[in-house]
Automatic annotation (TrEMBL):
Signal peptide: none annotated. Residues 43-430 form the Beta-lactamase-related domain. InterPro entries: Beta-lactam-related (IPR001466), Beta-lactam/transpept-like (IPR012338), Diverse_Enzym_Activities (IPR050789). This is Beta-lactamase-related domain-containing protein.
Length: 440
């Protein structure tokens, strides 16, 4: 029986508001204004990626008006072992950790511990006095000069801090970014995608000795800002970032399968990572290392287990992550647990960077960037289906989500492939929107 049919059957049998498999309450598509026939179209499109060997497998989830109306599994979680994809398969969500980190920071913000305009150096003195890389002579040489302004907490939340990612040096075409990646490599700065014998406290110390890519607030530069924010949470709260998330966010929201390091008893549920090969797909085993990029298939389960990367470290399921997203869609509350105030959620999903371009790291159609999430523009910016003001993000291994407050819609795509070989994220979004047949 197909997973969606099973969900629909449960929705009929269970009383309204009943939970299932630690996920959201379930509903038949028609009761939340979605078309069963059009959901079939969506599933055919995603299945086509499996059939074409662009991905090994996937899980898709759509919720509307507070209920899960679509959940489908495709292909294999581990092709070599013959393990099919399941609704409770655990995925490395990588940069989909970032909105979780943002929420943790905003929880402390609401408790009055700091202002977003505060220099982060007030709380992390290692970052109180930094340099900036500037050209020295021709375009391939650089020098360090003192920064003219400090990094604020808002700069970290909006990726305008000037802190970069080491792996982006492999993209080429930007001499300054490549130079910074070399400095990061020499200093042992890790991106959070492989086993690393260090902590986010160590990371902040190392970043305090390295230059910024640009003046804080001057440009959007994707990077380790969320790892720094994780350390800020530790310093303010007095507990590890892992413990803060477990006790203050995951437990209250019923997110039972979300971890920095997956317990041994659940490790068999993790999907394998795949990468394109001449024969279609090859499973990633162990560590892949480029000039600047280092990632591994085992970092959520391997040792050491001390690096709580706020930018890339979490693993989760579609069910768990849907509960986190529904909390945001509900303006900060889920099942009686108030995480954030409605005004704070509104601040999070409002563009914070104005005319600063976000660049190629953000999907087409973004009008800007809020506090940890990209914000979608209108029809003049994005010609595809969607709604102005929807907010979203994705992960290194091709996972993706969006939240649409206007349509009361959540979409989640869970895949494990790097590099991505298709436009599956955008096509999934388009196919999800075309299933809406009742907008009242």
């Amino acid at each position: 029986m197909r997973t969606r049919a099973f969900v629909a059957a449960l929705a009929v049998l269970l009383p309204a508001g009943s939970g299932w498999a630690q996920g959201l309450p379930t509903a038949t598509p028609a009761t939340v204004g979605l078309s069963d026939t059009r959901l079939d179209r969506l599933e055919e499109v995603v299945q086509g990626y499996v059939d074409d060997r662009a991905i090994a497998g996937a899980v898709t989830l759509i919720a509307r008006r507070g209920s899960q109306a679509h959940l489908q599994t495709y292909g294999m979680a581990d092709a070599a072992d013959g393990e099919p994809m399941r609704a409770d398969t655990i995925f490395r969500i990588a940069s989909m950790t970032k909105p979780v980190t943002s929420v943790a920071v905003l929880m402390l913000y609401e408790e009055g511990h700091f202002k977003l305009s505060d220099p982060v150096g007030q709380y992390l003195p290692e970052l109180a006095s930094l340099d900036v890389l500037t050209p020295a002579g021709n375009g391939d040489t650089f020098q360090r000069v003192p920064a003219q302004r400090p990094i604020t907490i808002r700069h970290l939340l909006t990726h305008t801090s000037g802190i970069g990612y080491r792996f982006l040096g492999d993209l080429g075409g930007n001499a300054k970014l490549q130079h910074l990646a070399e400095l990061y490599g020499e200093a042992g700065v890790a991106d959070g995608l492989a086993e690393h014998d260090g902590t986010i406290a160590d990371l902040v110390t190392r970043l305090g000795e390295l230059p910024l890519l640009h003046e804080p607030g001057e440009a959007f530069s994707y990077g380790l800002s969320d790892d720094v924010l994780g350390r800020l949470v530790e310093v303010i709260s007095g507990v590890s970032f892992d413990e803060f998330l477990r006790t203050r966010l995951f437990a209250p929201l019923g997110m039972v399968d979300t971890f920095f390091y997956v317990p041994a008893a659940k490790a068999s549920r993790m999907a394998s990572i795949y990468t394109p090969s001449p024969s279609g797909l090859a499973e990633v085993e162990g560590t892949v290392e480029g000039q600047h990029l280092i990632y591994s298939s085992t970092y959520p389960t391997g040792a050491p287990r001390r690096n709580f990367s706020g930018g890339a470290g979490l693993s989760s399921t579609a069910h768990d992550y849907s509960r986190f997203l529904q909390m945001l869609l509900n303006d900060g509350e889920l099942d009686g647990e108030r995480v954030l105030s409605p005004m704070t959620v509104d601040l999070m999903r409002t563009d914070q960077i104005g005319d600063i371009p976000v660049g190629s790291v953000v999907q087409p159609g973004s009008a800007g960037f809020g506090l940890g999430v990209a914000v979608r523009g209108g029809p003049g910016v994005d010609p595809e289906l969607g709604t102005t003001g929807a907010y979203y993000w994705s992960g290194f291994f091709n996972t993706a989500f969006w939240i649409d407050p206007t349509e009361q819609l959540i979409g989640i795509l869970m895949v494990q492939v790097f590099p991505g070989t298709s436009d599956i994220q955008e096509r999934f979004r388009i196919m999800a929107y075309q299933t809406i047949v009742d907008r009242n």
